[in-house]
Design brief:
The chain has ten helices and 18 strands. By secondary structure, it is of the alpha+beta class. The protein has two domains: 130 residues, 3-Layer(aba) Sandwich (Creatine Amidinohydrolase, Chain A, domain 1); 224 residues, Creatinase/methionine aminopeptidase superfamily (Creatine Amidinohydrolase). The longest helix is centred in the middle third of the chain and has 23 residues.
Length: 364
């Protein structure tokens, strides 16, 4: 049995536990996870004895190549997807059909409910996402490749930094280099933030030039075939000030403490607390306003979350970011981020870009 079929069997168990006989998977990312199909605008109908991709004629050949042996229902104009869903579901006749509440909007749900009159729709949340939390060997291999792509691109871009470069130019260079090294592109729009802009955790790369301030924060990642990476480093383009030295030191200690806390059966909130405690003790608690990290895989932000109040425990095979930060309005910010795998006996940091203070020395 291939890994996609195994995933579908695991989902069938979750669907039964949710009180349904079948599920309509409408999230494109989840369809990819369950079938290997990489196109869009397609659903998966999964029951106890059926697995059917509902797609359209654009992807007929792609489906044969990516999902050999999987049943496909190919619609053609003028048939709409909702009509195609009605056809497949009514033929299978499930009494209770699970749907992905996080994927469907209200209008879509109401339309399905109106069309599938003999079937009760059961709203579910996170059934496939909880399966995606634990990465298998092939997924881990793809994530490792995404990390390597990001690291190689960063090394080239850093070596070529010039004082007159803008944030936007650097972001574009990262994208270009990732593609040159064989990646599909960036995992997300890179954040390149000079000086005070670095105080915005999700700053937009703009026209500010490196020469305008001696601090630049770069948050970037790569997408390989399907899986992604997510890293952050801070560079100095001039002399490191005492303030930067102090704040950077606090963030680095916080990140190292959090990584050291990662292991199987450790509550996720405890990992967040390991970093947050150091930042709070240094007097910057109010300047760390986001959770410590998140899962990464087919999406750059996915379950699980390393955050306050998250009492679930880490499990081997989870891959999470660890990214504490301190953000000071009108001055700037420091965030250090790595991708970390939870192993059976602890953890493995997948990224290797140097991050000691000496590694932040003038890069221009």
């Amino acid at each position: 049995m291939d890994r996609h079929a195994q995933r579908r069997d695991k989902l069938r168990s979750l669907v039964r536990a949710a009180g349904a006989e079948a599920i309509l998977v409408t999230s494109e990312v989840n369809v990819t996870y369950l079938t290997g199909f990489t196109g869009d605008s397609s659903y998966l109908f999964l029951s106890a004895d059926e697995a059917i991709i509902l797609s359209d004629a654009r992807y007929e050949e792609d489906l044969q190549e990516e999902c050999p042996g999987l049943d496909c229902e190919i619609r053609r104009p003028p048939v709409k997807m909702t009509e195609w869903v009605e056809r497949v579901v009514n033929r299978a006749k499930p009494r209770r059909l699970a749907v992905e509440a996080d994927s469907l909007n209200v209008a879509q749900f109401d339309l399905f409910e109106d069309q599938l009159k003999s079937t009760t729709l059961i709203k579910t949340s996170g059934l496939v996402e909880q399966l995606r939390e634990i990465k298998d060997k092939e997924e881990l291999s793809e994530i490792r490749e995404a990390v390597r792509l990001a690291e190689r691109a960063f090394a080239v871009v850093r070596a070529g930094l010039r004082a007159e470069q803008t944030e936007r130019e650097i972001a574009h260079q990262l994208e270009h280099q990732i593609r040159l090294f064989g990646g599909r592109g960036c995992a997300f729009s890179p954040i390149v933030a000079v000086g005070p802009q670095a105080a915005l955790p999700h700053a937009k790369s703009g026209s500010r030039r490196l020469e305008e301030n001696p601090l630049v924060l770069i948050d970037w990642g790569a997408q390989g075939r399907l899986y992604r990476s997510d890293l952050t480093r801070v560079l100095a383009t001039g002399k490191i000030s005492p303030k930067l030295e102090t704040i950077y030191g606090v963030v680095l200690r916080a990140q190292k403490a959090a990584i050291a806390a990662i292991g199987p059966n450790v509550p996720m909130e405890d990992v967040d607390a390991a970093a947050r405690r150091i930042i709070e003790d240094a007097g910057y608690g109010k300047n760390f306003g986001h959770s410590l990290g998140h899962g990464i895989g087919l999406q750059v932000h996915e379950a699980p979350r390393l955050s306050q109040g998250e009492k679930r425990v880490l499990k081997p095979g989870m891959v999470v970011t660890v990214e504490p930060g301190i953000y000071l309005p009108k001055w700037g910010g420091v965030r250090i981020e790595d991708d970390v795998l939870v192993t059976r006996d602890g953890n493995e940091v997948l990224s290797s870009v140097p991050k000691e203070l000496a590694d932040c020395l003038p890069a221009v």
